[in-house]
Amino acid sequence: PSQCDLLCSQNYPLYIRSVPTENELKFHYTVHTSLDVVDEKISAMGKALVDQRELYLGLLYPTEDYKVYGYVTNSKVKFVMVVDSSNTALRDNEIRSMFRKLHNSYTDIMCNPFYNPGDRIHSRAFDTMVNSMMMQVC
């Protein structure tokens, strides 16, 4: 099981995808509790985040069942990914590259003149990319 969320700088969801969908509410709770950790990491990095251009926040926190990872864009859009703790094949480099793919796809959406920043994301291409990425994780 895994979940991928994109949240704007005001922390409301722009995009949510869960695989499988039966524990979706539990994933929402996990993602929203992780936002405090994301904000702490961003404020702790402060100026260093801007200087290094390191957007990957790494493992936010592990639970018994899941690991929660974070990423933040320059425009403060937060990406949160929840993956199963039992998936030991997933390394930090792979998580980092998944976030880069997400960020590149998000950038493509932002470049669309018909997309209003802050609206929920409804894109078949983005859905396809996220679904293929999540199938690798599950």
TrEMBL record:
<dbReference type="GO" id="GO:0006888">
    <property type="term" value="P:endoplasmic reticulum to Golgi vesicle-mediated transport"/>
</dbReference>
<keyword id="KW-0931">ER-Golgi transport</keyword>
<keyword id="KW-0963">Cytoplasm</keyword>
<dbReference type="InterPro" id="IPR006722">
    <property type="entry name" value="Sedlin"/>
</dbReference>
<dbReference type="InterPro" id="IPR044760">
    <property type="entry name" value="TRAPPC2L"/>
</dbReference>
<dbReference type="GO" id="GO:0005794">
    <property type="term" value="C:Golgi apparatus"/>
</dbReference>
<dbReference type="GO" id="GO:0048471">
    <property type="term" value="C:perinuclear region of cytoplasm"/>
</dbReference>
<keyword id="KW-0333">Golgi apparatus</keyword>
<comment type="similarity">
    <text>Belongs to the TRAPP small subunits family. Sedlin subfamily.</text>
</comment>
<keyword id="KW-0256">Endoplasmic reticulum</keyword>
<keyword id="KW-0813">Transport</keyword>
<protein>
    <recommendedName>
        <fullName>Trafficking protein particle complex subunit 2-like protein</fullName>
    </recommendedName>
</protein>
<dbReference type="Pfam" id="PF04628">
    <property type="entry name" value="Sedlin_N"/>
</dbReference>
<dbReference type="InterPro" id="IPR011012">
    <property type="entry name" value="Longin-like_dom_sf"/>
</dbReference>
<dbReference type="GO" id="GO:0005783">
    <property type="term" value="C:endoplasmic reticulum"/>
</dbReference>
